Amino acid sequence: MSAKIYRPAKTAMQSGKAKTNLWVLEFDAEKPRTIDPIMGYTSSGDMFQQVKLTFETREQAIAYAEREGIEYRLIEPKEPTRKRVAYPDNFRFNRMQPWTH
Q: Signal peptide position in this chain (predicted)?
């Protein structure tokens, strides 16, 4: 049984950073998903795919995985690089793109 430990990124539909400070331990799929021939539903016999554990810190998640004997891989979060933009830059003389309406 293996898992990945990561900190979720902000979704495109969020403007805030709610729930992005928690660390998540999510189990990897051990069995592939199958398609039901009659109804066409996608199903799996692996119940660990439904489990997501959240932790306050990375160290707590790693300690849990080691205590339970779970192989894990740690995915470090990528911090976004913010580009500083000011309103007067729209009317700059040396603007790269022409300003049109």
A: none
Q: Judging by beta carbons within 10 Å of its beta carbon (0-12, 13-18, 19+), is residue 65 exposed, middle or buried?
A: buried
pTM for the model = 0.71
Question: Would you call 5 exposed, middle or buried from its count of C-beta atoms within 10 A (0-12, 13-18, 19+)?
Answer: buried
> Tell me: the pLDDT tens digits for 7-45?
998 877 867 777 788 999 999 988 888 898 889 898 888
Q: 1: Cβ–Cβ under 8 A, 6 or more apart, which residues? A: 27, 30, 48, 70, 71
Phi, psi of 23 (to 5 degrees): -100, 140
Based on the number of CB atoms within 10 Å of its own CB, is 23 exposed (0-12), middle (13-18) or buried (19 or more)? Answer: buried
